[in-house]
Amino acid sequence: MKIEAIIQPSRFESVKDALREIGIEGMTVTEARGHGRQKGHTEVYRGREYTVDLLPKIKLEMVLPDALVNRAVDTIMKTAKTGKIGDGKIFLSRVEEAIRIRNEERGENAL
Amino acid sequence: MTTAPRPSLNPGIPPAKNMQDSPTPLSVLGPQADAQRQRIRQQFEAGTSARETLRAQCELADSNVQQIFGEVLRVHNREPQGLCLLALGGYGRRMLFPYSDLDILFLLGNEKVEQESRPLISEFSRTLWDIGFRVSSAGRTLEECRRIEEDNAEFHLALLDRRFLAGDAALFEKLDTKVLPASEKQARPFLLAQIHRLTRERLTRYGNTIFHLEPNVKESPGGLRDYQATIWLREIVEEKKGIRNITAAEEELSAAAVDFLSAIRCFLHYSNGRNDNTLTYELQAAAAARALGVGDGVTRTPAEWMRQYFRHARTLNRQLLRHLEQKSPVSLTLRQRLFNAARAAKFEPGNDRFFMVRDGMLEVVDQPVLSDRAVTYSLFAEAARTGTPLSREAERCIGYILTHPELPPKNTEISWAMLREILGSDYPGVALRSMQRLGLLVEILPEFGMIDSLVVRDFYHRYTVDEHSLRTIEHLQELAEPPDERGAHFAPLWKTAERRDLLILSLLLHDVGKGMAVENHVTGSLAALDSAAQRLKISPEEKEEVRFLIEHHLDMSATVQRRDIFDPATVSAFAQSVTTLEKLQRLCLLTYADIHSVNPEALTPWKAEMLWQLFVATSNHFSRTVDRDRLHAHDEVSLLGRVKALAGEASTEAIERFLEGFPRRYLAVHSAAEIAAHFALYRKLGTDPVQTELLATRHGFSLTLLTADRPALFATISGVLAGWGMNINKADAFANAAGVVLDTFHFADLHRTLELNPSEAERFRKSLADVVNGKAPLEPLLKSRESASRGRTPKVTVETRINFDDASSAHSTLLEIVTQDHPGLLYDIGSALARLACNIEVALIDTEGHKAIDVFYLTAQGKKLTTQKQELLREVLQGTLV
């Protein structure tokens, strides 16, 4: 399964550490911008308006063996949650195949 | 080298005969070559020099090339007439590294020979491949060699290193003595321009620095390619002997550097088993353990050994850059010439003028005066002020003086005032870069020597610690004209930052602790500050500011990455640790520069935006919460003690009465010594109800005024300043619990009245006191200035914005005005406020170019302003400010 999690940048270090504790080290991290229900806001500085309509987020992506997925999702949820709007979302999707480029291993061996 | 397509070689065509029929078959040649390669490697590993190793590699290749060429001719029943082989590039100059390609040119007498030779050439190349030589070959007729191919400059440059290998020697002779000398002479400007282009592109690709943590010993700046480019430049321009020529000592240094780097490159090839020239951390450790290239057999730490590498790389890079500057093939554009002339015109020509500007660089014209170090430092100050770099030749002149004891140096100690001038200028990095190259930076700041060429293994950092630190400063000076959108927000901060000298000193020292045996590098950097501050005689207040920046240099970055910067609690906590807007501004610039200098990709637009958002939120927090936190002097035991120590015989109670009720910002922006001075003025209020102190500052004057609060006081003071032609850039207005007002104004003396007539200072202060005390009217003063300023149109138009904020303060209504700055602006605003009976509790006045940014905390009859009053005030101000 592939897990995509959009989280608050401030929770990233904690989420990464928590995932490492349950044995998940491999992930792709992207600096992202976006918004859902948490709308942006406007700051005025020296007479100029700075509108932040797309808020900074971190996108985590990882492909895991099925057996690890629930633990990973639980861990992300517990660690990324602050209870406020803007905590993010987790998306799960099926992955048809995984291939390790170095040695062409396939399936779970490639994860 | 890039070889042209090889239409003449067709590996698909099987030869009529093959080498298996020859007397020395592949089955013998291959193992023979392998055994010899192995022997050369063993000898290298046993301590044979790189120079000897390269020679042996070259001889091995030569003998095989010649043997196989002879065999191929024999098998194909060909005579060598009209065909010969040339070694090009590194192989041509006998610098053949273990896994380098053999660059070989088949020189063909004419097209007929070319047609006939195709199968032979194909077989020759294939055979060399089969016995383990990587061949990069090209075929050209004599005529083709004569023609300069503009899109294949690399080939023509490789031809400069041509060497005869085998075949028709007369054909080579013709090429070497007739064809090429003529065409190369004609193509000299083209070749020169191409070397410049290729070199600049290569240096840019590697960030124009030798200080990579894992350098490429061939391609990085300071690598062997630098040496080769220098040789080409010298060959092409047929350098004549003279002052600009290379000295014997420099030749020696250069040869040592080439030997050192060649040893590394051999080692890398053998270690990697391929032509991979990256000096990785692992291989640095292995090379250091065997003292590679040093020759004394003493094991070194990787960091120590890498310092040797950088020393040699610096030699090669410095020579290349000097030649590039001297042999600039591109004439300056008219714009560049005018720009240089404008820069040069800024100099004050005097009797002691010892430098000039040529081609946009500072050149030394009177070398002996440089033995006075104060003169040398003034040259760096000039570079920092104008952004004009020293030429390599100027650096060479200084370097000569520094290393020749027959010219005894004078004034070797730099004063803090001089260093401040360099650090606080618009282009400090321009001067510091040269000073570092010459060793002067370490001389005046030995603490910086701890990170000289220091490699600290890190996944993210790309440069050595000293290079990282200098880059931070260069990234800041770039903000004068930000090269990309990441810097756009931060440019105004750089342009308006106060005490940039302290910010730059912080950047020089912030990572110095990485060169010390301490657990946390910040602790080491602070210890370095202690020693530097003592030696440079930096004042305690200045040292405290630098200490703050070093101590907190990771805080803003950590807050951006680990806290929710849109949470007011985060902003409030961060603001509390930073304490003032001025510190925030410097810390933000430091953080911007620090992240930017980790590697070229580290400061993503995402990170830059986050940093900016935190800055804006914290800055707004400061300006909107000034009156929230007021002083209870009795609790400030430490401060009271320090002020008391400075204030003579005053009682603690008297100091408490003075401080009670001031906004906490008052403490944050004034040192204990300044507070003690203010207290001294306060004590004199009994004899004279208006106390003033006027001081000249770097950018103008500062005026401190203490008096009892009274209606329209702020407007009156602003009016007097406007009447005297003073333009207020910045101001603070605070009041304590007893109603004593303490206003500080920083202003520019537009007509240089005070500067040119020192006696006017007393008249100015008297005029101010008289108007404030009601002994003299303000109007005549203002009238005299009105006529002088009438008719002036602003160069930049700033739209007026007026905002009220009732939420930020518990007691006051905040009025924020952003508008076009003009002399007398504060008087206009202050008068409007006074007319509507608004009391200014706190005022924060700032300017940014032509933009005035003023924040007032207002009350009317001790309360916040009503909505009706706000609307009326908005209307009045709009009428006044338009």
Tags for this entry?
heterodimer, A: about 110 residues, alpha+beta, B: about 900 residues, Beta Polymerase, domain 2, Four Helix Bundle (Hemerythrin (Met), subunit A), eight-stranded antiparallel sheet, about 10% strand
What does this structure look like?
- The complex is a heterodimer of chains A (111) and B (882).
- Chain A is of the alpha+beta class.
- Chain A has one domain (2-110): Alpha-Beta Plaits.
- In chain A, 23% of the residues lie in helices and 34% in strands.
- In chain A, helix 1 (12-21) packs antiparallel against helix 2 (66-80).
- Chain A is elongated.
- Among the domains of chain B are: 19-186, Beta Polymerase, domain 2; 194-288 and 315-321, Nucleotidyltransferases  domain 2 (Four Helix Bundle (Hemerythrin (Met), subunit A), Up-down Bundle); 627-678, no CATH class; 688-881, no CATH class.
- Helices cover 53% and strands 11% of the residues of chain B.
- Chain B has an 8-stranded antiparallel sheet with strand order 7-8-10-9-13-14-12-11. A 4-stranded mixed sheet of chain B has the order 3-2-1-4, sandwiched between helices. In chain B, strands 5-6 form a two-stranded antiparallel sheet.
- In chain B, helix 1 runs antiparallel to helix 2 (50-75), helix 14 packs antiparallel against helix 17 (428-438) and helix 32 (713-723) runs antiparallel to helix 34 (760-772).
- Chain B is elongated and about 115 Å long.
- Chain A binds chain B through residues 8-10, 12-13, 31-33, 41, 43-47, 50, 52, 55-56, 82, and chain B through 492, 560-566, 604, 606-607, 609-610, 612-613, 616-617, 619-620, 798-799, 801, 803, 816, 818, 848, 851, 853.
